[in-house]
């Protein structure tokens, strides 16, 4: 088997180093050559490895390649190794493939940005970090990759660091991610204590005591929840939309946020040892899916709708993993990467065309102007809504089917509820996605005419759109709106094609092809053979209902917004609650941030001001005083110093004389 | 009172007086002359202690060579410059220094009177060559034998030291540029 | 005469030298005081050499003599060069190291 995974790791790093050191002085074409080249070659290497792996018998598809012996102490040794198996192969293809498309797209989107080189350096760095996370063969280097993608995310969210809101969002993301890193670290400590080693090969075959296994699995899930924006650590992801839109597409929709899904799938033997932890995974996944979907219903910022939609879809993936169907989670991860990247890139194209406008109230009627964007956006919306035969249908269907089957198998009513939540969320997803679609593309253009009441939504980002290079230059006249250049539309088209056909790598058992399931067959069998097998009837019930929910959602959106989006204030308290995102930010502000700030202010005044500063002032006064005194000893008269010597001699002699 | 004691007392008084003169005379020339006398009296002490070679060297080198150098410099550098023309910047130094000096002498004397006394020859100290020196009352030949057999290396190092000192004096003595 | 008599004589001379260094401002006289101190130590050496019946002390005296000669040569050269520069050899004026 040809294994080029080391190159997949090193090429983006090389690109990052070149761009980071010399990018400032390079012309744009050279920057693109390096940035695209690094990511493109990495994708090529991944693809070569993939086809080579396909040609290899299934039993020999795992390659654990030690690159460097790092630590060796007694019985403990730690190597930097690359684990290339079907799971990491899938992730590599998604990361580098979607990454490459977004690299290409960014050339158009960021064309006017003065920090063009920096953007591509960060993108390459992100690809490197993500590959490191995916390809590491032990938990320590997983942690390294985990932290590095957090850093990449921080750098890219705060890319327009001139904007206060971007910096604040970057910090928020970083802090919450560090909570996750902390969980991962604790999990690694426990793993090391229990198994005495950190490599996957050893740890994942080790049997831990039940309590330890639960603790490890839950701590790992804390890390996953932070990285994949699950309840209650999801707050950073909507704010992460402060970054450039390609970043939202790459990091905060398609790849980085799926790291948690990947980790659960990677460490599934640990989760298998703890049914309680898996129940938590499923429960949190379901709760997050519903919760985020409700918030997405009434958002006005198009990127925020997509952000909450991402959180919701990630919830689906965890739901699948919570019922032992890890391969279904990965399947949804892959299809979601296609259509969510497409949605973000489409939203980016809209924003680009409207010179930085992100507020849905100022859009509308763009179908006539942005034909390619509109068409691809429609395909992606259909895919995420779970309409047959688009990609999202197959993966979502497999998840819901296995949740229902698991409920049926265990007889646990909670899994039926989880399934119902899944169906409900599917309907809501279809509704908010088509509300978004109609809001952007249907009806009449509202950009020039509608005066928007600014205090309707505290955080619709009029002020935030004033980015470097994306100055919100006021409404664009309808006739001057142009569809995007080929460099941006080609990635859209490729992703649209993938969103259409991407689902066919999943199981087709329902449609009379029992042996057709390329992805599930490709991934290790153990990753799905724990899943419950439901009867065909149950599968059909699930499929039918989810499809029905999707169609209903679209229909409602069509009824309400098909003629164009109109924003109406609604004083219904429930509506207000959801519209304000359950006031989570406000509650956090009141419960956490204001007390912390007040405490800090008090401490800064009294502890810092009086005690610490006072203390150091006191110390400096003390030294000043003593040295003013001691300074007088330094008279500068040589014989005066000689007197000092004599004094010393006399003291010694007298001491001996007295002592006798 | 034996001759020994009388001569010691006389010498002690004379040496102390001339030594006090060294630090008391305002004129550096007078101090230098007083120092020459002190060194001569010390040479007599050495004779009394039966160290003939040292006594002779003391007169030749100290009283002869070094003090001539001193006098030469003193007379070259403003021999009439009087230190008391300038105000003493630290007048209390005089009193404190004097008091500390008294304490030092008192403590040392107390120590020496009450400490262990060496009354007679200790044959164990020193090797046969150096014992020969005292046996022949500081005879030059015996001294030379002892110096070049037992102390050859320090002696050679001293010659190096003197060369370095001469070079240093040359460097300092050169006019700037 | 007992050994202690010579040693006390030596201590007395040494202290006189010390006081000279402390109270005089003419570097030439300070040098002379240092010579006094060296000679006081020499006296101790010779006395101890006599009473211990060993010439080691006298060897030391010989070495001290050469060191003193070297010291005087360098010291006087220094004083001359300072005098050339400042036309004043008061040690209290040499206080640029004052804190």
UniProtKB/TrEMBL annotation, chain A:
<feature type="transmembrane region" description="Helical">
    <location>
        <begin position="375"/>
        <end position="394"/>
    </location>
</feature>
<feature type="domain" description="NADH:quinone oxidoreductase/Mrp antiporter transmembrane">
    <location>
        <begin position="136"/>
        <end position="411"/>
    </location>
</feature>
<keyword id="KW-0812">Transmembrane</keyword>
<dbReference type="GO" id="GO:0015990">
    <property type="term" value="P:electron transport coupled proton transport"/>
</dbReference>
<feature type="transmembrane region" description="Helical">
    <location>
        <begin position="141"/>
        <end position="161"/>
    </location>
</feature>
<dbReference type="InterPro" id="IPR003945">
    <property type="entry name" value="NU5C-like"/>
</dbReference>
<feature type="transmembrane region" description="Helical">
    <location>
        <begin position="492"/>
        <end position="513"/>
    </location>
</feature>
<feature type="transmembrane region" description="Helical">
    <location>
        <begin position="30"/>
        <end position="54"/>
    </location>
</feature>
<dbReference type="InterPro" id="IPR018393">
    <property type="entry name" value="NADHpl_OxRdtase_5_subgr"/>
</dbReference>
<dbReference type="InterPro" id="IPR001750">
    <property type="entry name" value="ND/Mrp_TM"/>
</dbReference>
<feature type="transmembrane region" description="Helical">
    <location>
        <begin position="640"/>
        <end position="658"/>
    </location>
</feature>
<feature type="transmembrane region" description="Helical">
    <location>
        <begin position="116"/>
        <end position="135"/>
    </location>
</feature>
<feature type="domain" description="NADH-Ubiquinone oxidoreductase (complex I) chain 5 N-terminal">
    <location>
        <begin position="70"/>
        <end position="120"/>
    </location>
</feature>
<dbReference type="GO" id="GO:0008137">
    <property type="term" value="F:NADH dehydrogenase (ubiquinone) activity"/>
</dbReference>
<feature type="transmembrane region" description="Helical">
    <location>
        <begin position="540"/>
        <end position="561"/>
    </location>
</feature>
Automatic annotation (TrEMBL), chain B:
<keyword id="KW-0812">Transmembrane</keyword>
<comment type="function">
    <text>NDH-1 shuttles electrons from NADH, via FMN and iron-sulfur (Fe-S) centers, to quinones in the respiratory chain. Couples the redox reaction to proton translocation (for every two electrons transferred, four hydrogen ions are translocated across the cytoplasmic membrane), and thus conserves the redox energy in a proton gradient.</text>
</comment>
<dbReference type="Pfam" id="PF00499">
    <property type="entry name" value="Oxidored_q3"/>
</dbReference>
<feature type="transmembrane region" description="Helical">
    <location>
        <begin position="151"/>
        <end position="172"/>
    </location>
</feature>
<dbReference type="GO" id="GO:0048038">
    <property type="term" value="F:quinone binding"/>
</dbReference>
<feature type="transmembrane region" description="Helical">
    <location>
        <begin position="95"/>
        <end position="113"/>
    </location>
</feature>
<feature type="transmembrane region" description="Helical">
    <location>
        <begin position="55"/>
        <end position="74"/>
    </location>
</feature>
<keyword id="KW-0520">NAD</keyword>
<keyword id="KW-0472">Membrane</keyword>
<comment type="similarity">
    <text>Belongs to the complex I subunit 6 family.</text>
</comment>
<keyword id="KW-1133">Transmembrane helix</keyword>
<protein>
    <recommendedName>
        <fullName>NADH-quinone oxidoreductase subunit J</fullName>
        <ecNumber>7.1.1.-</ecNumber>
    </recommendedName>
</protein>
<feature type="transmembrane region" description="Helical">
    <location>
        <begin position="32"/>
        <end position="49"/>
    </location>
</feature>
<dbReference type="GO" id="GO:0005886">
    <property type="term" value="C:plasma membrane"/>
</dbReference>
<keyword id="KW-1003">Cell membrane</keyword>
Automatic annotation (TrEMBL), chain C:
<keyword id="KW-0812">Transmembrane</keyword>
<dbReference type="GO" id="GO:0005886">
    <property type="term" value="C:plasma membrane"/>
</dbReference>
<dbReference type="GO" id="GO:0050136">
    <property type="term" value="F:NADH dehydrogenase (quinone) (non-electrogenic) activity"/>
</dbReference>
<comment type="function">
    <text>NDH-1 shuttles electrons from NADH, via FMN and iron-sulfur (Fe-S) centers, to quinones in the respiratory chain. The immediate electron acceptor for the enzyme in this species is believed to be ubiquinone. Couples the redox reaction to proton translocation (for every two electrons transferred, four hydrogen ions are translocated across the cytoplasmic membrane), and thus conserves the redox energy in a proton gradient.</text>
</comment>
<dbReference type="InterPro" id="IPR039428">
    <property type="entry name" value="NUOK/Mnh_C1-like"/>
</dbReference>
<keyword id="KW-1133">Transmembrane helix</keyword>
<protein>
    <recommendedName>
        <fullName>NADH-quinone oxidoreductase subunit K</fullName>
        <ecNumber>7.1.1.-</ecNumber>
    </recommendedName>
</protein>
<keyword id="KW-1278">Translocase</keyword>
<keyword id="KW-0874">Quinone</keyword>
<dbReference type="Pfam" id="PF00420">
    <property type="entry name" value="Oxidored_q2"/>
</dbReference>
<keyword id="KW-0472">Membrane</keyword>
<keyword id="KW-0830">Ubiquinone</keyword>
<dbReference type="GO" id="GO:0030964">
    <property type="term" value="C:NADH dehydrogenase complex"/>
</dbReference>
<comment type="subunit">
    <text>NDH-1 is composed of 14 different subunits. Subunits NuoA, H, J, K, L, M, N constitute the membrane sector of the complex.</text>
</comment>
<keyword id="KW-0520">NAD</keyword>
